[in-house]
Amino acid sequence: MTKNVTIRDIAREAGVSIALVSFVMNNRIEADGKKKYRVSEATKERILEVARRMNYQPSSAARMLRQGRTHVLGIILSDMANIFYGILAKEFERIAHKHGYTVLFGSTEEDPERFDALVKSFLEKDVEGFIVVPAHGSDAGMKRLQASGRPFVVIDRYSKDYTVPYVLVDNEEAMEQAVKALRSQGATRIGMVSYSMRITSMTDRENSFAALAGPDSPIYHLSFNSVDKDAEKAVDDILARGIDGVITASNVPSVSIIKALIRRGVQIQKDIRIVGFDYSNVYDIFSPRISHVQQPLPQIASTSGEYLFRLIDLNEKGEDISQINEKIILKAKLI
Amino acid sequence: MTKNVTIRDIAREAGVSIALVSFVMNNRIEADGKKKYRVSEATKERILEVARRMNYQPSSAARMLRQGRTHVLGIILSDMANIFYGILAKEFERIAHKHGYTVLFGSTEEDPERFDALVKSFLEKDVEGFIVVPAHGSDAGMKRLQASGRPFVVIDRYSKDYTVPYVLVDNEEAMEQAVKALRSQGATRIGMVSYSMRITSMTDRENSFAALAGPDSPIYHLSFNSVDKDAEKAVDDILARGIDGVITASNVPSVSIIKALIRRGVQIQKDIRIVGFDYSNVYDIFSPRISHVQQPLPQIASTSGEYLFRLIDLNEKGEDISQINEKIILKAKLI
DNA sequence: CTGTTAGCGCGTTCAA
DNA sequence: TTGAACGCGCTAACAG
Question: In percent, how much of chain A has pLDDT > 70?
């Protein structure tokens, strides 16, 4: 174990008290107007010099223990290898940094047990707040989260089972845009390709699609673990039915179904029109570009981030945040 | 602030000593064979019951302070919104979890100051080890990292300026595969599209390309902040020179150049053959699929992860790890 | 065998 | 500018 330099070592070396070193380190000096503890420039410089020379690194564990604050957030996403969550992760990290926070990340891989384990582990790490994308069936984890009393915001999906702070996207309206776009591009027989995962982002879009497109517009479900194989089957049916317009419920199904169509020799955007959800750089490859309904990722991140910081703030002030459950709905945009 | 239940509260409530609660909580009991502290089943149950009832949550800060271990790793990547790093992030998180660790993530966005800030902040958080992708010019951050004495592994890029533990991919051999593949697909006049960023993954590939393809095979540089615009210019020249085979140095330039070519009406894989580096789902869209040299991401993650845990272990045992600087080179694979 | 006492680790902060 | 208590869990040493 690298013997870490402590505040005491510095004090000894500089010939001053431990307390003084602490003050200097925290710039508790001349806190403008409010006369704080004062140190002579000379000793201040000496202390800083010694600290630098000894390569002093304060232990946030000790500080935390005293102050009760870690300045760490816990962010639990579904899958960081999916660009959708990758962009969110990046945005969250940026926002956290701006507020002087660091971020503990976790991927659930849509596994509720993993979700619960992450919540537990982050709680023990004393994160000050959470932003989470619950996996389907994450009741244990959500219960744990609520019981902890720690501030958190749920994004991307909701559940009627818990009334908590949410930041969501209006999937119904988004689907209206998608269907309208597809029809305006000349498609007459339309279908939808979705995930088999029963998360609300999918089910909402499916319900909305069913309502708009009517009962004989098919909805195909690709399973998380066999998207490509399931896409092949879906394409069989799509071709058999003579469908000329497809809406994909998310970027992963989009790519999968496009690949399967191409393998069948179908001309994308000519034989079959596609409108996607979320972003994928595959959309840009075709001409005309594949329209897609894009969730405002940076806005989701900043909105939920601000929401969380507000909760943390209130919590810190001793207010009861357990009754706060505002649901913020953002709009998607057709590209 | 949610008044946290401490070990003392439990002790008082259960009518036992603090120490006993600690033992029970840690299962320091019946450490099989080794007779550890023993507690009667009755009191043990009582303590556990009280802890559960009071919703006890141990503070890892306090524990850490005592044991000197946080079980947290710091992972600094370039850009989590890039699928390449997204996959790595996911893998690292999985591996860390398997070892009982949690992960602090950071994105540098190729900014050396950000890199240094992240290193500093993670050091303060007492991470036990790092895996980092240094931004170009991250000398301050690397110096800080080395001075800290904390275990770390550098991946994806290297610098002759520091001799440290590395896990890299053999870019020279990878480029040989790429050029060979491109030629075998019938390309005669070939060029390369790279990033203008001077990181070794790029420069190595460029040097290797130049050596293999000869002096009149052009190399185009797209700048990080204007890839699409730069790609347009590159395409002008590519068409003017009658180039029929392009190697792209990374996934971002790949997508950019493909889009630009398509906008010019060029038939990908017919008029111009492409061989890419890294993975992008765009590669799968064309027929024949765009060959690409793929870095073994899961292997990079597991290799560097094991490497880091080895270093942490040695460090914990008091050995001097500052002299360890094995460079592990993995092979890329043509897909 | 069952349990307790007491001091440690380290930065913060109040009283002096 | 300093001494010393504090926060909280861990654990060596000790006791019934």
Answer: 95
Q: How far apart are CA A204 and CA A197, in angstroms?
A: 12
Decide if B106 and A107 are in contact by the 8 Å CB cutoff.
no
Q: State the Cα–Cα distance between residues B335 and B331, nearest whole angstrom.
A: 13
The per-residue pLDDT for A335 is 82
User: Distance (Å, rounded) from C-alpha A160 to C-alpha A167?
Assistant: 14
Residue A43: which nucleotide is closest by CA–C1'? D1
Asked whether residue A7, judged by its CB, lies under 7 Å from any atom of the DNA or RNA strand D, the reply is no
Q: Cβ distance B80 to B86 under 8 Å?
A: yes
> How far apart are the C-alpha atoms of B205 and B173, rounded to whole Å?
9
Q: Which residue has the higher pLDDT, A26 or B331?
A: B331
Residue nearest to nucleotide C10 (CA to C1'): A62
Residue B95: which of B298, B294, B313 has the closest Cα? B298
Using the Cβ of B194 and the Cβ atoms of chain A, whether some distance falls under 8 Å is answered with no
| Tens digit of each residue's pLDDT (9 = 90 or more) over A33-69 | 444 556 677 778 888 888 888 888 888 888 888 887 8
Residue nearest to nucleotide C2 (CA to C1'): B39
Q: Please classify residue A15 by burial: count the beta carbons closer than 10 Å to its beta carbon, then call 0-12 exposed, 13-18 middle and 19+ buried.
A: exposed
How far, in whole angstroms, is CA A75 from its chain's centroid? 7
Query: Going by CATH, does the domain composed of A70-169+298-334 fall within 3.40.50.2300?
Result: yes
pLDDT band at B274 (very low <50, low <70, confident <90, very high): confident
Contact, A86 vs B88, CB < 8 A? no
For residue A195, give the DSSP letter: E
**Token pair for residue A277?**
């959800």
Tell me the residue type at A314: L
Choosing among A125, A254, A314, A319, which should be mutated to test the B contact, i.e. which has the most B CBs within 10 A?
A125
User: Which window residues (275-334, chain A) lie with Cβ within 7 Å of strand D?
Assistant: none
pLDDT, tens digit (0-9, with 9 covering 90-100), for A260-310: 888 777 777 778 888 888 888 888 777 777 888 888 999 999 999 999 999
Quick check: B93 and A80 in contact, CB under 8 A? Answer: yes
Which among A55, A102, A282 has the least Cβ separation from residue B285?
Answer: A282
B58 in contact with chain A, both atoms CB, cutoff 8 A: yes
Give the homologous superfamily in CATH for domain B7-66.
Answer: lambda repressor-like DNA-binding domains (1.10.260.40)
Query: What residue spans define the domains of chain B?
Result: 7-66, 70-169+298-334, 171-294
- Residue B180's nearest CA partner among B247, B254, B248 is B247
CATH fold for domain A171-294? Rossmann fold (3.40.50)
| Predicted model pTM | 0.84
> Taking a C-beta distance cutoff of 8 angstroms, is the pair B43, B20 a contact?
yes
Matching CATH topology for B7-66 and B171-294?
no
CB pairs under 8 A between A and B: 153
Tell me, what's the pLDDT at B130? Answer: 95
Tell me the C-alpha distance between B286 and B276, whole Å.
13
Closest by Cα among B146, B172, B169, B144 to B157: B169
| Buried b or exposed e, range A169-182, using 16+ CB within 10 angstroms | bbbeebbbbbbebb
